[in-house]
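Supplementary notes for students who missed Thursday's class. We covered one full example, reproduced here. Read the sequence, then the structure, then the short commentary at the end.
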Amino acid sequence: MGVLQIVVVIVILLLLVKPVGTYLYHVFSNEPNRTDRWFARTEKGIYSLIGLKKRGGMSWKKYAISFVLTNIVLVLFSYIFLRLQKGLPLNPSGIGNMEETLTFNTVISFMTNTNLQHYSGETGVSYFSQMAVMTMLMFTSAASGFSVAVAFVRGITGQKSVGNFFEDFVKAHIRIFIPLAVLITLIMVGLHVPQTLKPMLEVATLDGQTQQISIGPIASLESIKHLGTNGGGFFGANSAHPFENPSPLTNVLEILSMWMLPASLPYMYGLFAKNKRQGWMIFSAMMTLFVLFLALNYYSETQGNPAINAMGIDSSQGSMEGKEVRFGIAQSALFTTVTTAATTGSVNNMHDTQTPLGSITPLTLMMLNNVFGGKGVGLVNMLMYAILGVFLCGLMVGRTPEFLGRKIEAREMKLIAIAILIHPLIILVPTAGAFLTDLGKGSITNPGFHGMTQVLYEYTSAAANNGSGFEGLADNTSFWNITTGVVMLLGRYVSMIAMLAVAGSMIKKKPVPETIGTFRTDNGLFTGILIGTVLIIGALTFLPVIVLGPIAEYLTLR
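Structure (token representation):
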């Protein structure tokens, strides 16, 4: 039954990929289509309001500057709101102002689409902050990532320009995230997820005492939390909390919400490339990697804890530690794999309590940073590896490498090298640094190899802009707030700007006629090459540290 549950959700996703991908193409193709009838008037009003009279194409540099400056302005406003939230409205619980380093970490986290939370939502932020800061940044960070991904696709597929950031940013809101968020919010309310501005409920317990129960505008945050692959929870327990995720039905809805858009982007890319096989090739590589790591997590969790098995205790139901009974192992394993493959960070079970081999799945998916990915990140990173694969194949056969009819030369490979190398650098260097100071080691709550994994997971999650954590780590300190904040910034903006530069370089190149010797990138052979490239680079950079963490822990348990 567990396997059947997983298969049904995957089949539903497969049915959604083509229609959703087609819709995304119509939104960003900038060609007249039927969606204009519903949204064009609203968008014109916004363009007029912000002074965007001409929506001509930008250079990649102007696009990148517009993207970064918009994000900076949003960060500044959010920082001010959190530092002053005690005196702002919609604060029925009287929650105080957020501490300086925690505020820095929080606004960076939400603007980078990471949502790494070093605070507990129900006690750390007011209703106003949940809506005006957290929910707002969930929309804008997702729209920013989508815009950059579309600009990159335009560049490598030979469109006239990479587009206009502000036009893409507005369209992502008006035609994708806001309509879908309203729809999902209404469904979530119908499935008993709270949506209210009333203060805490005070209820009588069975022993005659009173208990306060936190509520609030939860459904609206939950919708964009998953649609935008954000992951930040209204409550500290995130989607394990029954108000955020009350039933198996809401669990499936949340899984599809965070998986649907990233999984549909490859099909959109195929339409831009005028070759749907290109899109399916990328999607096939993503899904193959996904299924491999899902199988590892599901198998490991169903086998239970080796130490408990050795004691003769029956663990035939598998390892249920840290999991909700209403979801079980199958929906917990699927949620874990989707939330890290799509860099969402939402959790319906505690990753810290997973079996050692099971924890390899979320760790590795974040280290690879390209299996579906968040809003556009997965597609961009997978295409980056595709270009690298073409380059390596070209070197082996002695031909000038080409991708989508354009030559891959030194400039593109230097930029791709920067994007590839920055990811392990900002994970491994801070991880090593944390063990060299008491500020880092003092937060580890589990000694030995598991403590190693706690620190590694924190920086991997920050670098991958994922946000999930091994919650055993005591991370709300100035050291962790500042270091993970810097890692999140580098993880988001260095690779994005580098890939925009690649798009700007590719768009200037003249198409090369296809010949009998042209290396095809839309067949099963290249899908295998792409998967191999991803796994080999991932193994070369991260296998040693995984051996020091979860693999060593598994061997000692046995």
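Commentary. The longest helix spans residues 524-557. The chain has a mean pLDDT of 93. If anything here is unclear, bring it to office hours.
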